[in-house]
C-alpha cells in the first residue's frame, strides 16, 4: 500500500515551479514521518506523511502547509501534526 504522499509524488505537476526542495525522514516523538519542503519564489510548502508502513496501515495522514516563510509553514505543519496525534490518542 502506498501513502498519500507517495501517490501525490507520482503526479508530474507535484512540486512544479519550485526553485529548491528538501526531502527526508524526521522523527517526532515516537513517530517517523516523511517530509518534503518546496521553496517557491514567494512562498514555501511543507508536506508531512504519517503512514503506518506495516499492516494494517491504520494511519495514512498527509499534512500540507503553505506560508510566506519556511518557519511559518513548518509551524503550521507541526500544529496539524500535533492535532492528529492528540486526536488519535483519544
* Residue fraction in strands: 35-45%
Radius of gyration from CA coordinates: 13 Å
Element order: H for helix, E for strand: HEEEEH
Q: For this entry, what is the oligomeric state of its chains?
A: single chain
How many DSSP H or I helices?
2
The N- and C-terminal alpha carbons lie at a distance of 26 Å
Low-pLDDT runs: none
Helix content: 25-40%
Tell me, briefly, the overall form. globular
Structural class of the secondary elements? alpha+beta
Q: What is the number of beta strands?
A: 4
Strand order of the largest sheet: 1-2-3-4
Q: TL;DR?
A:
The protein is of the alpha+beta class and 90 residues long.
Structure description:
Strand 2 and strand 3 (44-51) form a beta hairpin. The chain has helices at 4-9, 70-89; strands spanning 20-28, 31-39, 44-51, 60-67. The protein has a four-stranded antiparallel β-sheet, with helices on one face. By secondary structure, it is of the alpha+beta class. It is built from two helices and four strands, in the order H-E-E-E-E-H. The mean pLDDT is 94.
Search tags:
single chain; 90 residues; alpha+beta; 2 helices; 4 strands; globular
Question: How would the blueprint of this fold be written?
Answer:
Layout: H1 4-9, E1 20-28, E2 31-39, E3 44-51, E4 60-67, H2 70-89
Antiparallel strand pairs: 1-2, 2-3, 3-4
Amino acid at each position: 500500500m502506498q501513502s498519500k504522499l507517495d501517490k501525490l509524488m507520482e503526479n508530474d505537476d507535484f512540486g512544479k515551479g519550485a526553485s529548491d526542495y528538501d526531502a527526508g525522514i524526521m522523527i517526532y516523538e515516537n513517530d517517523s514521518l516523511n517530509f518534503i519542503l518546496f521553496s517557491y519564489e514567494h512562498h514555501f510548502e511543507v508536506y508531512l506523511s504519517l503512514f503506518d508502513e506495516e499492516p494494517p496501515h491504520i494511519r495514512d495522514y498527509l499534512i500540507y502547509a503553505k506560508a510566506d516563510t519556511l518557519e511559518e509553514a513548518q509551524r503550521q505543519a507541526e500544529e496539524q501534526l500535533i492535532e492528529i496525534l492528540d486526536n488519535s490518542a483519544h
